[in-house]
User: Which sequence fits this backbone?
């Protein structure tokens, strides 16, 4: 596969996202970008490694609170805050990862949810002296403006989030093509055979777990800087399934699924709640419909068709369609 | 350290809470045990049961008829969902049923919102009397709830051990293919289990209604606890569900006496510890879905 072709999909996708920014209000575009990064971790876990996690808010909160603590108590540079959020994500997922990745799939989902609930009550009640409980931490005015891209201004924050998202997608596309990405898929499909090939299942899973949850923590750090406050609401158990829903909507394990899912989900929430004020109804039954219709999601069922169309236009034989 | 009166009332509070948890999660556990699906929509029947109890008790003034109505509606809703959705997904892996049933739960919450609105509704306590146990005032209603849970456990035990259908269900927990090989209509068995599970969830909702506020999100709020109860007990074990629901009830209630913020968190910490020692819960079997 040529270098141009490798980049073409990525560039096209993000060019479309940039176009989106022109037609849609800024908060919507930022929400979509952060939400897609948030979902990408979950999508990677579910589609590539076969872990379904109902506890992604836990890692989102780890990133968000680490950033918030820094900005509230110690410093005022949002860039350092985001770096600290990422570091916290790595440390946090390294701490719980070795315990969690040993568990069977269904227990993994549930224990992750439990982790989200623990962090929720930890932030809301137990550490209330530091986190200010339900009121949350407010530090919007603490953040100093930074040179080059001023993260305290939403329009420049969008550019920053956009660049970060692009870098993450490049990284995940690279991951998908690497041997390591193949190992992840093998863990999902047949872990015994992977072991026979001489790979350490545990290491592959742990690395995938850390990568995915650090991505989620990064999304949390971005939220923290963008909103200027963090409250326990971010990890509330009632929102635990959001990333899973978006993952399924977009198509689990696909590269661009999370973006499509985030756009549709955020849009649906906005539009439907304005029209009938009852978006759960639509989201829930869409989810059931997608699952019954073959669980491929929106992007998952579009992608092969687009591939075929592209190949017909360039006059090539379609030998990748089946994958 | 703790006032003994507080301890007694805390213990009864924990017992009644455990009873609700038990009724709510037995459906989840049965569905996993026999059909190998995780049926989060049980929490929808719980919500619906509570709302039916609210509506009927407001209209007639008798909560018990409302609870009965909740059982019937819960069972019927479960029947419809089984026929329309679960019938098609029994063969799929567990994550699949988890996501699908979550969709049903969310969509169902939307339907509930459509019918009853967003406002939390109070339900009048059907029994106002208090009795004195060891010098402590105990609301009789909580004891009645515990009694009903005991009766249900006894009934299920008799049903599973003394009737031929119950024996088929127990055999199904061990191996569904063999049951089918014996000439038992497994598909009808699945439907029956689903109706029982839905009815019991409706019962849990109806009984819980006077103790809390009835609101559309109530199913999502107890979701984490329901998860936890079935995990600690072991997915698919009814005895495990009984033990772990009372364990969790006591931990929440006694824990809140010791240090209030601990109440919500302690059960989850205990769950993590239990899973570290027994990765499939207290009474769970290590079997996998093939």
Assistant:
């Amino acid at each position: 596969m040529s270098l141009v072709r490798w980049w073409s999909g990525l560039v096209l996708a993000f060019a479309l996202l940039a176009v989106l920014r022109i037609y849609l209000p800024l908060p919507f575009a930022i929400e979509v970008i952060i939400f897609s990064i948030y979902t990408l971790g979950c999508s990677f876990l579910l589609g590539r490694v076969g872990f379904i996690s109902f506890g992604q808010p836990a890692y989102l909160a780890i990133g968000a609170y680490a950033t918030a603590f820094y900005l509230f108590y110690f410093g005022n540079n949002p860039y350092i805050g985001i770096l600290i959020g990422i570091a916290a994500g790595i440390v946090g997922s390294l701490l719980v990862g070795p315990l969690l990745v040993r568990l069977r799939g269904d227990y993994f989902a549930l224990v992750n949810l439990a982790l989200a609930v623990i962090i929720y009550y930890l932030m809301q009640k137990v550490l209330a002296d530091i986190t200010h409980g339900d009121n949350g931490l407010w530090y919007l005015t603490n953040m100093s403006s930074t040179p080059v891209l001023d993260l305290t201004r939403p329009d420049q924050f969008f550019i920053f989030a956009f660049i970060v998202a692009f870098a993450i997608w490049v990284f995940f596309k690279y991951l998908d093509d690497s041997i390591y990405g193949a190992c992840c898929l093998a863990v999902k499909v047949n872990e015994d055979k992977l072991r026979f090939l001489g790979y350490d299942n545990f290491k592959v899973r742990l690395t995938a777990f850390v990568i995915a949850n650090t991505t989620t923590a990064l999304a949390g750090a971005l939220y923290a800087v963008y909103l200027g406050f963090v409250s326990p609401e971010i990890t509330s158990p009632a929102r635990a399934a959001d990333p899973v829903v978006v993952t399924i909507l977009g198509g689990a394990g696909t590269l661009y699924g999370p973006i499509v899912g985030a756009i549709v989900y955020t849009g649906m929430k906005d539009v439907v709640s304005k029209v009938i004020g009852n978006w759960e109804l639509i989201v829930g039954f869409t989810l059931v419909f997608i699952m019954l219709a073959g669980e491929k999601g929106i992007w998952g069922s579009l992608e092969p068709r687009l591939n075929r169309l592209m190949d017909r236009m360039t006059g090539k034989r379609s030998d990748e369609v089946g994958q | 350290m703790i006032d003994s009166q507080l301890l007694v009332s805390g213990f009864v509070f924990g017992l009644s809470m455990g009873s609700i948890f038990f009724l709510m999660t037995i459906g989840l556990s049965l569905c996993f045990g026999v059909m190998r699906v995780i049926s989060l929509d049980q929490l929808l029947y719980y919500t619906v049961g509570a709302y039916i109890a609210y509506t009927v008790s407001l209209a007639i003034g008798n909560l018990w008829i409302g609870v009965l109505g909740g059982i019937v509606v819960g069972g019927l809703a479960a029947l419809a969902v089984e026929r329309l959705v679960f019938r098609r997904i029994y063969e799929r892996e567990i994550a699949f049923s988890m996501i699908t049933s979550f969709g049903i739960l969310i969509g169902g919450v939307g339907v509930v919102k459509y019918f009853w609105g967003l406002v939390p509704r109070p339900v009048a306590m059907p029994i106002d009397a208090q009795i004195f146990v060891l010098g402590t005032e105990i609301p009789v209603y909580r004891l009645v709830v515990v009694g009903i849970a005991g009766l249900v456990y006894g009934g299920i035990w008799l049903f599973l051990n003394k009737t031929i259908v119950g024996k088929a269900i127990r055999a199904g927990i061990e191996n569904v293919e063999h049951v089918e090989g014996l000439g038992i209509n497994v598909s009808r068995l699945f439907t029956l289990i689903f109706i029982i599970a839905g009815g019991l969830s409706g019962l849990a909702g109806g009984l819980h209604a006077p103790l809390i506020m009835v609101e559309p999100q109530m199913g999502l709020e107890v979701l984490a606890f329901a998860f936890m109860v079935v995990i600690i007990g072991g997915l698919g074990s009814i005895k495990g569900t009984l033990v772990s629901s009372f364990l969790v009830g006591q931990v929440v209630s006694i824990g809140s006496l010791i240090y209030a913020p601990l109440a919500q968190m302690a059960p989850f910490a205990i769950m993590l510890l239990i899973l570290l020692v027994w990765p499939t819960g207290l009474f769970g079997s290590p079997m996998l879905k093939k």
In short: Chain A touches chain B through 44 residues (CB under 8 Å). The CA atoms of residues 306 and 321 of chain A lie 9 Å apart. DSSP finds 14 helices and two strands in chain A. Residues 28-237 of chain A form one domain.
